[in-house]
Amino acid sequence: MQRRTTLLIVFAILASFMITSLSMAADFTFHGASQFDEKHAFTRLMRKFEQLVKLYYTGDKSIEFVMHLNSELGLEKDYFAYMNQGISVDYAVVAPSHMSTFSKMASLLDPPMLYKNHIHWSKVLGGDALDPIKEDVLKRADVLLIGYGGGGTRHLIVNRPVQTMADVKGLAIRVMGAPIQTRMFKAFGMAPTVIAYAEVYNAIQTGVIDAAENEAAGIQQMKFYEVGPNIALTAHSITVRPLCFSNKTFKRLPKDLQEAILQAGKDAGTYGRVVEATEDLQKLMQMEKEGKLKTIYFKDRDRLVKAAQPVLQAYFAENNASDVLKKIMAAQ
Questions:
Q1: Which residues pair with 143 in a beta bridge?
Q2: What is d(CA 98, CA 134) in angstroms, rounded to the nearest whole number?
Q3: CATH 3.40.190.170 fits 2-330, yes or no
Q4: What is the DSSP letter of 128?
Q5: N or C end: fewer C-beta atoms under 10 angstroms in the chain?
Q6: Domain coordinates of the chain in residue numbers?
Q7: CA dihedral 264, 93, 134, 101 (to 10 degrees)
Q8: What digits encode the pLDDT tens for the residues 313-323?
Q9: CA 125 to CA 137: how far, in whole Å?
Q10: Exposed, middle or buried by CB within 10 Å (0-12, 13-18, 19+), for 163?
Q11: What digits encode the pLDDT tens for the residues 60-96?
């Protein structure tokens, strides 16, 4: 009898806990994903997005955000595919190259040598020049680009010092999956090959490739300096890293929450750009001070710029986006 009473009490407690948990469940739960930890600029951008959605939303529904860190749900290309399907991931920062499977125009957001400097880059992202690309991504991938992060300056990560075009001739380098990346680095005289981001470290270490390219945050997070300690300051790209949101999720939301998400995405993107652009050089200098890497002045950067121009013009033209390129170049 006593045992039965004890069991009834236990069942009652469990039932009460389940009822309480159900009553506490949020009306809307959104799942985010990051390849990185809490310190990375992309994760911080998404945390700011979460804060701003809750600040801007004026409705009476409860909201919860769940962040999956350190590649728990795979890589950025996986997050984008999930958002396309409306499963697992609702929001994430994704490199344009990883969207190119769905939208070729996505890779036009930040190909090498597109932006003259950070002032030009900031003007473009603050205007409407990129809207046709955003519209194409939504049409073909059913994913919204709700804000623009990024701002890191990408350089070469090499297992030996390189300073000139002659030094990089035939250099085996890892590039991202978008065709523009392969074509651009071939134009630079290198030998590009597409390798998954998570495999870059081992690929350099084992001699499969001699180089990669990345911004300071990525070099630091992935410890690429351990296998490629020579950072050639080519400054060949200023990154654009869109904050994406699944349109399948978005369409199910009330209008006031949709408006909060769009405004929060725009403002969080601005925050993310400031964070990454201002911290980029600091991180590089910090790693050099700690003896982890050596920065090397690249003498022939003007030749990289010259080699890039016909590739950019041809690629934008192939995607019926010559007018987009003209508007980007005219931004001031």
A1: 246
A2: 14
A3: yes
A4: S
A5: N
A6: 2-330
A7: -160
A8: 999 999 999 99
A9: 16
A10: middle
A11: 999 999 999 999 999 999 999 999 999 999 999 999 9
